[in-house]
Amino acid sequence: MSTESSFSHPPSAIQERRVIGRNELLFELSSGGMGHVYLARQKGVAEFERLVVVKRIHRHYAKDPDFRAMLLAEGRLSSHVRHPNAVGALEVGVDDDELFLVFEYVEAASLSAIVKAARAQGKTLPAPIVSRIVGDVLAGLHAAHVARDVRGASLGIIHRDVSPQNVIVGTDGSSRLIDFGVAKAKSHLGTTREGVLKGKLSYMSPEQLLRKSVDHRSDLFACGSVLFEALTGKRLFSSDDEGAIAVAIMLGAEDTLEELGAGLPEAVRPVLARALTTRPEDRFANASDFHEALEAAIPPAKPREVAAIVEEYAGKAIESTRVRIRETAAALDEGRLVDAPANAEHVEEVDPTLVIEEPKTSRRRVFTYAALGVAAIVVIVGASVIGGRHSSSTAPASEPSAFAGTPLSPSVAAEVASSVAPPIDLDAPVTPVTTPIKDDRGHSRVHRPVKASKPPASATLHKSPYDTP
C-alpha cells in the first residue's frame, strides 16, 4: 500500500488543531468520552524532536473544576516520580483553553498484551522473565511511594491502579509502571472524594474495595495479583459476576492460589501468599522488600532476554507502529498529510472491570458497590454461623474453601458493614449479586471467564495506549 493511499481519509478533529503547545500530533492512540490520547512529535530549536504521548482533554471537561483538578493532580504527582521503571509526566499545559498532559513515549507493549499473546499460543511466560518484569515494576512503585517534592516533603503517593494494563515492557528489556491517573497522595488538591471506587476491580485490595483508608501496601496486594497472572496466564480474581469477585478478594487468595497455581514455582508461593494476605500489616513492609523476596525466589532474567520475549509476542505490532510513525512524519514534513485517522486497528477491548469516575459520579455505581460490600460481609458471617452449627458433622474440619480467609466475628463484621454501606436509596437501581456456583465437592467457584461489557465512556482515556498486541 502506498503512502498516498494510506492517508487518504476524510477530515476529523485532528485537522482542526494538529499542534498543541510544542507537540505536533501524529495519530490517535485511543479516545473516550473525556478526551483523546495521541502519539506526537515534540519539536524545539536546532531541529530537536522526540516522540511523546499527549492526553488531550475535551474543553467542556477541562472547564469542570473537579475534573480539571484531577488531571492537574495526575500531572503533578507523576512529575515527581523520577525513576527508570516509571513513566512520569513531562508537562502539564493549557493551550487555547485546552488542557493537556505530555508523557514520555516508550516503545513497548503492555504486560497484559504479552500475557494474552502467550496464552493464545498455549504458553506462559518463563518465570525468570516474569521476575524481571514484576521486579522492575516494584522498583518503580517504590520510587513513587517514597517520592518527595522539590522542597523535600513526602508526597505519600499510592498508585491504586497497578494492573497488567498499566505495566509496559519495553523493547529495551526494561519494564515501567504507567498511568498515575487515579493515584492518591497526601496533598491531592482535594480531587479524591470519599466513597468513590477507583481502579480495576480484579486487582483491588480488600481495604480499597471496602473504601477504607489505604496506604502503599494496597499497591503491593495488586502487585501480587499481577505476579500471579504473569506466571500462570490466569487472572487471580476472575468471574462474570462482580459480586463474586468482591467476595473472593475480601475472603482471601489462599485457596485460589492452591487451585489455580499448579505450575507455580514452589519458592514463589510464600512470596505470593504474603503479598496477597487480606491484612495489610501482614504484607511486605514496602515494595523494596517485596522486590528482594521475589528475586531470591526467582532469579530474574537479563534485560536482553526480556527484550526477546517482547519481540516474540509483540514484535509485529511494534514494527507496524514504527512504520506508521515514519510514514506520518514524512507526510507531514512534505505537506502531504492533511489528516490522520484514529488508530482503530490497535485499540484493544477495554477491561470491563475498569472503574473510573467522570466528573459527575454515577449514583448507580456507588450504590452497586455498596451492595457488593454488604453482600460479602453477609457471606462471611453466614459461613461462620453455618460452620458453627455443623461443627459435629462428619465432614473433615480442614476441608478447604475457595473463599478461605481470616474469619470475622459478628461484631467486627457489623462494624465493617456499617463502614461500607451508606444509607440505602430505595429508588437507586442496584445490580443483584449472583451466588457463586458450587462444584461436586461443595466448593465455591468464581473463576469463570469475564464476559466483555461496554466500559464507562471515560474508561478509554485511561486505557494503556501500549495495550496493542
Tell me the count of domains. Answer: 2
Global geometry:
globular
Average pLDDT score: 73
In terms of structural class, how would the helical and strand content be classed? alpha+beta
Strand numbers in spatial order across the main sheet: 1-2-3-4-6-5
Alpha carbon gyration radius: 23 Å
Helix content: 25-40%
Number of helices: 15
Predict the CATH topology of the largest domain: Transferase(Phosphotransferase), domain 1
Can you give a write-up of this model?
With 469 residues, the protein is α+β, with helices and mostly antiparallel strands. It has 2 domains: 3-106 and 313-339, Phosphorylase Kinase, domain 1, CATH 3.30.200.20; 107-312 and 352-469, Transferase(Phosphotransferase), domain 1. The protein has 15 helices and 13 strands. The protein has helices at 3-6, 13-16, 59-62, 65-79, 111-120, 127-145, 206-209, 216-232, 242-251, 254-260, 269-275, 287-297, 303-333, 363-389, 410-420; strands at residues 19-20, 23-31, 35-43, 49-57, 89-95, 98-104, 108-110, 167-170, 175-177, 199-200, 354-355, 437-438, 444-445. A 6-stranded antiparallel beta sheet has the order 1-2-3-4-6-5. Strands 7-8-9 form a 3-stranded antiparallel beta sheet. A two-stranded antiparallel ribbon has the order 10-11. Helix 6 runs antiparallel to helix 8 (216-232) and helix 6 packs antiparallel against helix 12 (287-297). The radius of gyration is 23 Å and the shape is globular.
